[in-house]
Amino acid sequence: MGDVAVVEASGLGHEYSTAGVTTRILGSLEFIVASGEFVCIVGPSGVGKTTLLRCLAGLLRPTFGSITVDGHPIARGNSALSLVFQDYGRSLLPWLTVLANVALPLKGTAPRAERRDRAVSALHEVGLGDVLENYPWQLSGGMQQRVAIARALVVEPRVILMDEPFASVDAQTREALEDLVLRIRNHGGMSVVLITHDIDEAIYLADRVIVLGGRPAEVRANIPIPFGRHREQLATKAEPEFAELRARVHQLIGAPDDGRRPAADQGNPRDEGARQ
Q1: Backbone angles phi, psi at 238, to 5 degrees
Q2: Per the structure, how many domains does the chain have?
């Protein structure tokens, strides 16, 4: 994993105005995502995790501060970024084949033969090379989410953003998809930013866990995860340190929203990177 910052948020804040009432959702967030790093963002419901992800994706313009990708201001349609949504049923087009769904982001940017070749390669990467001509509604939920992941991979992004991508599948499928995303990251070298409510999932997947809390949201902690690149569902989760990290993150998420953090987690969160 490189030390170069691919994504950098500086003083990032966002607020909404409704009926003349302004609500600050995100405070002044500061963090980076390094090249090849897997970062999971957790926090209580309603803290602003999805709002943050939309800002990172260029779908929302931050009210305050800045976001850069490779040193350049974030922009909608940035080919360095891909986004995987939670609801694969809405993100895939049911009237297009699996192959056509995956090739869709390349339309207008590459010749037809190249689009097909890259889509086929992405589908093989996620283990779906044998269902190219099927339609999404003919596949299981886990397979549909694999199609969505393949579509994110086809543009060869620097960063994949994922909004609770495994929340709609069963536990066994969820574990298989977690391991798939780890293999893809390890093989392809891209950075991953994943939003999740599941503390175990965050610790299992991440090189670093960012905990949000407070109103407006702040970075409550920035926690390196010491399990290396190659992880196993049973063995990694049986590590004593896994339980310690779970308890630490759980405590941070449940801490009072009074603007304070436990002493052990205070300091500049930008100084804590994943130490692999």
Answers
A1: -90, -10
A2: 2
Residue-number span of the structural domain to which 113 is assigned: 86-152
Task: Provide the terminal-to-terminal Cα distance of the chain, rounded to the nearest Å.
Answer: 8
Q: How far apart are CA 66 and CA 32, in angstroms?
A: 12
Give the distance, in angstroms, between the CA of residue 214 and the centroid of all CA atoms in the same chain: 21
Do 141 and 194 fall into the same domain? no
Is residue 95 domain-shared with residue 66, that is, in the same domain? no
User: In this predicted model, what pLDDT tens digit does every residue of 4-32 receive, in sequence order?
Assistant: 788 999 999 999 888 888 888 898 999 99
pLDDT tens profile 217-256: 999 999 999 999 899 999 999 999 999 999 999 999 986 6
pTM: 0.87
Alpha-carbon gap, residue 267 to 174, rounded angstroms: 34
Same domain, 161 and 75: yes
